[in-house]
Amino acid sequence: DEDLAVLSASSENPDEIGYLPALPVLAIVGRPNVGKSALVNRILGRREAVVEDTPGVTRDRVAYQAEWMARRFTIVDTGGWEPDARGIDASVAAQAEVAIDLADAVLFVVDSNVGATSTDEHVVRLLRKTRKPVYLVANKVDDARLEPGAADLWSLGLGEPHPVSALHGRGVADLLDLVVGALPEVSAVAKRELGGPRRVAIVGRPNVGKSSLLNKAAGEERVVVNDLAGTTRDPVDEQIELGGKVWRFVDTAGIRRRVHLSQGADFYASLRTSAALEKAEVAVVVLDVTQPISEQDVRIVDLVLESGRALVIAYNKWDLIDDDRRRYLEREIEQNLAHVDWAPRVNISAKTGRHLERLVPALELALESWDTRIGTGKFNAFLAELVAAHPHPLRGGKQPRILFGTQASSRPPTFVLFTTGFLDAGYRRYIQRRLRELYGFEGSPIVLNMRVRE
Ligand code: GDP
Hints:
Largest sheet: 6 strands, mixed
Bound molecules: guanosine-5'-diphosphate
Distance between the termini: 19 Å
């Protein structure tokens, strides 16, 4: 029947399903001004990542969904921070380190007019050691006369230089053909995990206690599990048994081996966070209760929301809280984190071990919500009841109607509503609120998409 045909067509539309976990990750690395942002824009085919980088300015978003020849992947743009002259080496090395840890393939961008610099050579040594595919991109080859400059880059020992012009598009299609050919279907880490332990990212500002939490969890409950048959252990992750079950904590290398940079630390923190979230199914955002909830804390929570992963909030250093601070904290939570009041909350002390055992039920609850599927019949009954109780307000004498709806995917639960007009934001929030009241969804974001029929 016609409606069903529309439904199945739309659930295959990538726009409808916002988040597919574990798309392969392509990282872009290079010195400032070699044209990384221009290349990202070119690959995305849109102007969103427009080179708005004021030097030193932190950008929140560093991961983008991209598609080439019907292959979808995530681009991690490591170029959001332009360091001062002294910091360049450290910054580019840090980019490379993150990229090598967390990406499935790396584009290493060099300005072919400048050639390789000593900064480049430092990174090249790191890149030569990885077994992941590395593409040497010779940028700013705006026409054929500039190709000899690109050829000089053979000397870097990273294989064939690929001459491109990010600005004009020259050579980019050929490069992308190669790259998507080399990318795995799903991120290599995730692939090993099919049916394996659930993947947890511990995220949060520096010094909130992430590594303490990890150490306490690993130390007390012991058992860092051996390789699953036929897999190689990824040194950036650790498997830890908690509450009688094995969990995979992703990118623990990033927690243990901290990159110390005076400037741009925020940027690398959010780069790490985005990359870890790509690989995780659920995030534990760690907050330090001795500190006021900061913008950076909220930004990290919002990165989790954007990633579509399940969310647990751990309020750490509870051993240090007093009554005064406690009252302020509750007020700060109401003010800054009301939009995630559905996330399970645990008040812990990584130092004393207080209430660490509550983490596992919280993770399980969040993942269960994240996995939830509501059948189409049940969902439409829910919608009918909801509309009967509280119809959409009239807009210009018309009333947008919901024709029917369906859950297009889980992880996170993603619903599509077919309507005769655009639903108000307030009404969409009402639907989400009712969904939570009836079905819980504790710990999971809910995505509500609309298909407006003319
Ligand atoms: P990370 O940067 O988020 O990994 O933070 P760390 O785990 O390195 O912790 C930062 C500092 O906070 C260290 O000095 C820890 O000993 C301390 N810390 C972490 N968790 C707790 C806690 O629950 N209580 C107390 N009192 N201190 C803690």
